[in-house]
Amino acid sequence: MIASCLAAPALWAGEVLDRMVATVNGHAILQSDWNDEVRYESFMSGRPLAALTTEDRRAAFERLIDQELLREQMSSTDFKPASSEEIAKQIGDLKKRYPQEHAGESWDAALSSYGTTEALVAGHVAVELNALRLVDSRLRPSIQVDNAAIENYYKTELLPKVAAGQRPSLQEATPTIRELLVQQQMNQALSSWLESMRSQAQIRMLISQPLEPRVQP
């Protein structure tokens, strides 16, 4: 859900030369922000950095713009950000699951191979938790899922995929189906909301064409 830019030259053996690559309502997005986003997405998916395409990097850049637009909304409401305890719990869960989901590679080894740190990962986790909290509080109240939609999903989507002896009743499946349909509608509403915010925002690209950044482990 939710433009790319010319990479700044990087002196990986020593000092890194950073630069602004865009501004969103006057807030700077730096080359280092983009590189960190790419590293984080690669780390979480287990994909080698060298395997990422230009489209992958462009998508990471677009997410940075969306994150900034959502961040502005947090500052303009009575928004309560995720606590340090919630962030720590999420990190703990990720550390437990990481070896299972990525061919036994340890958390610490993966951090090192992607050139990132647990502190940087925690920062990204905080951004995601806060975005989810904002979207839920803003969009969920307007979402309506009627019983007919739930029954239709149960008959056309759930039953054909479940063996006859394991099928839950409609009543048993209703809470799960309702939440799934709510999430689907929220994703659609979020796309529309972000599009509206982008149309009203002052987004300034500081390059003329999308090229991929230099990102190395």
Structure report:
This protein has 217 residues and is mostly helical. The protein has one domain (20-205): Porin chaperone SurA, peptide-binding domain (Triger factor/SurA peptide-binding fold). The chain has 7 helices and 3 strands, in the order ββαααααααβ. The chain has helices spanning 31-45, 54-75, 84-101, 107-113, 118-139, 147-158, 170-200; strands at residues 20-24, 27-30, 203-205. A 3-stranded antiparallel beta sheet has the order 2-1-3. α2 (54-75) crosses α5 (118-139), α3 (84-101) packs across α5 and α6 (147-158) crosses α7 (170-200). The radius of gyration is 20 Å and the shape is globular.
Provide tags for this entry.
217 residues; mainly alpha; Triger factor/SurA peptide-binding fold; 3-stranded antiparallel beta sheet; 6% strand; globular; disordered N terminus
How much is the radius of gyration in Å?
20 Å
Domain count, please report it: 1
What is the H/E order? EEHHHHHHHE
User: Order of strands side by side in the largest beta sheet?
Assistant: 2-1-3
**Mean pLDDT score:** 87
Enter the CATH topology name: Triger factor/SurA peptide-binding fold
Shape: globular
- Discrete helix count: 7
